[in-house]
Amino acid sequence: MFSGGPERKRRSERRMIGRIRSQALEGGKFVTDWMEHRTGIVSIMEHFLYEPVPKRGAWLYTLGSATLFCISLQFLTGILLLFYYVPTTDHAWDSINYIMEEAYFGTLIRGIHYWSANFLLVVIGLHMAQVFFAGGYKAPRELNWVIGVVLLLLVILLAFTGYLLRWDQDGFWASVVGMKIGSYSPFVGASTIHFLMGGDVIGPATLSRWFALHVWLLPAALAPFIGIHLYLLRRHGVFGSEFEYSDRLAKLHERQRLESYERYEGDGYEEDGFREDEGEPYTGRRDRADREE
Prior knowledge:
Blueprint (H helix, E strand, L loop, with lengths): L3 H36 L1 H9 L13 H19 L10 H10 L4 H29 L7 H23 L4 H14 L6 H9 L6 H33 L5 H24 L19 H8 L1
């Protein structure tokens, strides 16, 4: 009598959990179908996220996704840091110190921003090396390779401009060295660096202009190039995909078949595969030699 009470209670709880789970699944399916019918978002996401890749070395093809993930982290954490960062020479370092010491989750957010920037440079370099050694820059993917190089340059500029925003000794002198090197570029080097510095030395104008580059101009240039890069990737597919190998193998087999036919056509065989003198079906040289023995 008493032992059956807890068992009935557990069965009732399991039935309740099962009903809640089924209702949640039905509700999610209804919302998904409603959105798909009106916007096609499910089909778009399926086409965007799923891409066939070769089985051998498949993990190497995740480097592009890892690069996009790191860039997304940079955008997200950068927006959060903007709530506290002050781009002036008097308050830049103090605002970062406040983020690290006082702001809620400030250490975590700035740490993610800092380390994801370092990982981004490593991952994008590995991604370009993988594409280069796989031959992914060949036709018809030349334009996508050029856009990838542009994205690499934009990421390097983002890293370089962000280094000064900390307004500490490392960022200050690293920027001085970098701009000194850039000033030796032919024709436009000196004038470009003078404009970016806002004068002859690094000062408030330099920090303000580099903040504008790092937060507004470079991300605004980066985003459309990422969109074009992904569009061309989906249009031409990943180099070495299964469909590409299948197509190449089919063409190779067809060429081998035609070459084999042309080779045997001169031995007295017609196109339908019968000998002209005896009318025997063509079975190949090896089978014919075995039969004659």
